[in-house]
């Protein structure tokens, strides 16, 4: 393939790819969330243990100490993480999970999870109202134009 035919083939392929990407939408609430109240994790407050993992993977996971048990001393929250085979990634994930739990415990309704849940509920209510409004408009149009079957 050379020249114009190659360009047309690539252009058609690219357009189908970009159309597929445009159809998938994930709404992000990050800009609406208040991150100022998130507690900071102090390394002195954490007790970290590396324990042997379990589950699928056989000997490779059962013999290596790549699972992380993380305890927050002041609150007593405990998190165990064995999502990957990498100790480094498990440490990172365990800290993220502990931070979420600590945020929920300390902030309650002002935690990031509850803020995001509130925004999601608000959007669902707006969508429901919009669907109802459009259905009412359609119904009134059908009655006005005598389109009832």
From TrEMBL:
<dbReference type="GO" id="GO:0005739">
    <property type="term" value="C:mitochondrion"/>
</dbReference>
<dbReference type="InterPro" id="IPR000352">
    <property type="entry name" value="Pep_chain_release_fac_I"/>
</dbReference>
<dbReference type="InterPro" id="IPR052405">
    <property type="entry name" value="Mito_Transl_Release_Factor"/>
</dbReference>
<keyword id="KW-0175">Coiled coil</keyword>
<keyword id="KW-0496">Mitochondrion</keyword>
<protein>
    <submittedName>
        <fullName>Putative peptide chain release factor C12orf65-like protein, mitochondrial</fullName>
    </submittedName>
</protein>
<comment type="similarity">
    <text>Belongs to the prokaryotic/mitochondrial release factor family.</text>
</comment>
<keyword id="KW-0809">Transit peptide</keyword>
<feature type="domain" description="Prokaryotic-type class I peptide chain release factors">
    <location>
        <begin position="40"/>
        <end position="133"/>
    </location>
</feature>
<dbReference type="InterPro" id="IPR045853">
    <property type="entry name" value="Pep_chain_release_fac_I_sf"/>
</dbReference>
<dbReference type="Pfam" id="PF00472">
    <property type="entry name" value="RF-1"/>
</dbReference>
<feature type="coiled-coil region">
    <location>
        <begin position="95"/>
        <end position="147"/>
    </location>
</feature>
<dbReference type="GO" id="GO:0003747">
    <property type="term" value="F:translation release factor activity"/>
</dbReference>
């Amino acid at each position: 393939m050379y020249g114009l035919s190659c360009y047309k083939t690539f252009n058609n392929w690219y357009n189908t790819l970009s159309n597929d990407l445009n159809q998938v939408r994930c709404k992000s609430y990050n800009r609406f969330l208040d991150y100022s109240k998130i507690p900071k994790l102090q390394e002195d407050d954490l007790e970290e243990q590396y324990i042997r993992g379990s589950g699928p993977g056989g000997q490779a996971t059962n013999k290596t100490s790549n699972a992380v048990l993380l305890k927050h001393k002041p609150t007593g929250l405990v998190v165990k993480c064995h999502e990957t085979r990498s100790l480094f990634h498990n440490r990172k994930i365990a800290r993220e999970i502990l931070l979420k739990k600590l945020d929920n415990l300390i902030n309650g309704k002002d935690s990031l999870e509850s803020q995001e849940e509130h925004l999601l509920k608000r959007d669902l209510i707006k969508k429901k109202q919009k669907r109802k409004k459009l259905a009412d408009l359609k119904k009134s149009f059908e009655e006005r134009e005598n389109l009832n079957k």
